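Researcher: Next sequence.
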Amino acid sequence: MALVFLDPAFPDGRVADASKPQLLVTDLGVTRGDGVFETMLAVGGTVRKMPAHLDRLAGSAEALDLVVPGRDAWQRAIATAVNGHRSEHPPTDPATDELVVKLVVTRGAEGAAAPTSWVQVSPAGEAGRRQRETGIDVILLDRGYDSDVAERAPWLLLGAKTLSYAVNMAALRHAHKQGADDVIFLSSDGRVLEGPTSTVLLAHVEKSDDGTSVKRLITPRLDSGILPGTSQGALFTAAKAAGWELGYGPLEPQDLFDADAVWLISSVRLLAPVNRIDGKEIGTPSVQKELTAELSGLFAGIH
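Model: Next structure:
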């Protein structure tokens, strides 16, 4: 792993040894989960969707009243970390040359005048690539509040990517105990929301009067209190240019079961087709395979 701290005394970032202790035990990111983060994918040494991730990091930080380093500082530190990892671990196979690039900002140690910020780079795991190819089984779980709560209670930080991921990880552990791979959260009023670490997409294919296929890509509405997906946004732009129609919820569970295909999309795993929801097969395998290949091709061209 490559580790680079953002430090005003080091314009390109301060390289640190990831095998040695680096954080104080009083750091509020550790003791309270008080901080924000972003996770990106680097392919062939190029970080995908960096501007969108930096924009979202800034938005999350603003929601927490957290002052974070500027874009230039992040970009220099990211380059230092990615190049440092690749120089120490030269890629042997271009097909698997994928790195996870994580940006983290905590409020710092108690009483600190400035936040603690760093970039860490590590190889992407095999599980994500496997799930892109074989698909996943998911279960539906109640997230415990209704779809209007984000507007009523902005202090819940539902649209921010914070370090407080204990609930998300508990949901995934629960899914694994049920024999599933992942989760789609529902609001208490029955709306489809998001996955613990992903955005929900579904597709419908219909025949028009002239016999051509009309393909529609749909995702839940952002005002339901979900995290704006950088991958979903980029894919929607590419799909629209390729002639797809786009839609935004509100969605209910039956919409998932009625879809021709459903996916969970995220920056590292990319587009993972959903095979079954609560044990019920989704869509038609041949249609899902065709649509997945088309959308994956569009997504591969995004940088």
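Model: The chain has two domains: 2-124, 130-300. The longest helix spans residues 71-88.
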